[in-house]
Design a protein that fits this description.
heterodimer, A: 5-stranded antiparallel sheet, B: alpha/beta, 4-stranded mixed sheet, 4 strands, 30% strand
Amino acid sequence: MTKGITLEIPAKAEYLSLVRAVVVSAAGLDPAVEDQRIEDLRLAVSEATTNAIRAHANLGSDERITIRCGLGDDRIEVEVQDRGPGFNPEELKEVGPLNEPERLQYEGGFGIPLMRVLADEIQIDSADEGTTVQLVVYIPPSS
Amino acid sequence: MMLGITQKDKDGWVVLELSGEIDMATGPKLRQTIVHRVQDGDTKIVLDLSGVDFVDSTGLGVLIGGLKRTRSHGGDLRCVGLTEPLKEMFKLTGLDAILSKENKTPEDIEGFSHD
């Protein structure tokens, strides 16, 4: 990544809008990035950061969440790193489509599926000492 | 950004005009408002989302919770005024099939008077 910024935030929901605003502003620095892709990134980063805040629920308030946003020639990479207890992405419960009546029993379960749809690449590395979610959105070549 | 909620009563429906963002920080405020209105017997609720700039999965959870709560009390929850990004998100999650009509304003809902 040739350019980038790093944010460290307390694991509190009121910082979500700040994270979104910073990532959107950073992505907007490259005029080749389409508005729709910036919206995709905005939502995907919000989902990743929300999960990170939830993962910190039982940690001390000193433990911070790190968000790194890198701008390359052909991609934007955002990494959200928490210090929570980790999880196995392979063991996530499959949730069905919302138009199935039983799906309405769950109000959650959208976050990771949404990230998978919105980002061009997603990598989730999770261990006992924390989870890192890397989201990539491609930048189209300049015409 | 905060979430603004203006409450109006019209033709037997409660209209909640929302502005701002619905996420983990602001979702509880909307959830509480819906819960209180249903507790008061107002089970037909319209959410006017035309002033909402952003909804994430936590916000969707609040909408689904509101839908379940109103329907379990014999009412309903409708969404109107979806912006293009919100329409896209509703489509991605399948929420459009159960929650969203193509109504642009509360007056487009059947039974609403036009004044």
